[in-house]
Design brief:
With 404 residues, the protein is of the alpha/beta class. 29% of the residues lie in helices and 20% in strands. Helix 5 (131-145) packs across helix 6 (162-178), helix 6 crosses helix 7 and helix 8 packs parallel to helix 10.
Length: 404
């Protein structure tokens, strides 16, 4: 799901500080809007506005009090080139569909951030010639939508590419300088130790360039996690990595640390319930962390009873819930009390496991429809593949058929 692609110049936006909250003024089709407080951008959950059965953001706002949304994902064009698109297919320059979503949210007093990258696809940092060209592409997005916040979601396969990460970090620094007050988050994979080797290399690149965003966030899921305790342990370990990398004390590291979770059933079959979210939220607020978000609002609703627990979906959580239960934790992080709702329904039992298919082999060739087992899940190939580890992704080669 999460893990679910010749650059033109763009005019730099001008910043305006007021009463401790910075408002960004940008020439854009949507018109400039007053910025929300940074806490809202830090709490904004991810929303795919064009895929995965997009929910109505106005309905979510009415039901939860949510004001900020993290729109995903901006990528390079599937056909090549250094210009921003939605999902690799819809050019930002000619977009009207996402603009309509932005207008709906702003008409109700909310705002959006835009996330670039994500899992899969081709990232602009991979194809643009250098950091300046990459920044120019992203500046088009900032100007088009009059953005006050942006998220760099740096993960596979991009964060394994040293040149691409240098471009992305360099672009983030340029955008931060050219758009005073722009809220910048950097999101990367989480591990039990905090983050892996590539995540640590990304932090070292940021240090070498003298770049400090509002936060570095990890995604502690899809890595053998088991509930909130494993996630808060990873956040503690990541804090130590931030301290050792940048020379910060513990409090400063927490002030630049963020959490990006996955609600319900993860791509690898982990489960994170409302109780887990509350536990991590308590950890984040008690340690004065800068960000608390999740993937995604498209999934923040209950599946049909037949699907609950048995598969990972891009459009529902696979756990028992009321619609928008998880969004309310973001509202709490922003410092607002969400509207009350009916009690969460009784959990639906997880369907029994099925038999495992033949084990996946890194040397075998698989074609469309071939089935294998990997990491106690069955997988079906969507097209020809060899040596691509089964991982659930909207754009990946493997379809997760559930636990076995």
């Amino acid at each position: 799901m999460r893990r679910l692609r010749a650059c033109l110049g763009a005019a730099a936006a001008v910043g305006l500080a007021a009463a401790g909250t910075t408002a960004l003024v940008a020439g854009s089709a949507s018109g400039a809007t007053s910025a929300l407080g940074n806490r809202w951008y830090a709490a904004a959950p991810y929303l795919m506005p064009l895929d995965n059965d997009p929910p109505d953001p106005a309905a979510i706002m009415d039901a939860t009090g949510l004001k900020a949304f993290q729109l995903a994902f901006v990528l390079a064009p599937n056909g090549g080139g250094c210009s921003p698109t939605w999902g690799g297919t819809a050019a930002v320059s000619s977009d009207t569909a996402v603009q309509s979503v932005v207008n709906t949210i702003r008409a109700k007093g909310g705002d959006v951030s835009v996330s670039i990258g994500g899992y899969g696809g081709t990232k602009l940092g991979q194809v643009c010639s250098d950091a300046a060209a990459t920044a120019a592409a992203y500046q088009q997005v900032i100007t088009k939508y009059g953005l006050h916040a942006i998220d760099f979601d740096l993960e596979e396969p991009e964060y394994e590419n040293t040149a691409a990460i240098k471009n992305e970090i360099g672009a983030a620094k340029i955008l931060q300088q050219n758009n005073p007050g722009l809220y910048v988050s950097v999101t990367t994979a989480g591990t039990a130790d905090g983050t892996g080797w590539f995540g640590k290399q990304m932090l070292l690149e940021a240090k070498s360039q003298g770049f400090t965003p509002n936060n570095f966030s990890i995604m502690p899921f899809d890595g053998g996690f088991n509930g909130a305790a494993s996630q808060t342990s990873a956040l503690t370990n990541f804090n130590q990595i931030l301290q050792s990398t940048f020379g910060w004390d513990q409090a400063t590291a927490y002030a630049h640390e963020g959490f990006s979770g996955m609600n319900g059933r993860s791509d690898t079959g982990e489960f994170f319930t409302q109780t887990d979210f509350q536990t991590v939220l308590d950890y984040a607020t008690s340690h004065n962390m800068d960000r608390f978000t999740f993937w995604s609002l498209n999934r923040d609703r209950q599946c049909t009873p037949a699907d609950n627990g048995g598969r990972t979906s891009g459009t529902c959580s696979s756990v028992a819930q009321n619609s928008w239960d998880f969004a309310k934790y973001s509202v709490k992080f922003a410092g607002v009390t969400p509207p009350s709702s009916t009690p969460t329904p009784t959990p639906t039992p997880t369907p029994p496991s099925t038999g495992c298919k033949p084990a996946w082999s890194s040397t075998a060739v698989y074609t469309v429809g071939n089935e294998v087992s990997y990491n106690r899940h069955n997988w079906k190939a969507k097209w020809w593949t060899q040596n691509e580890t089964p991982v659930a992704s909207d754009w990946g080669v493997w379809q997760d058929e559930g636990a076995c």
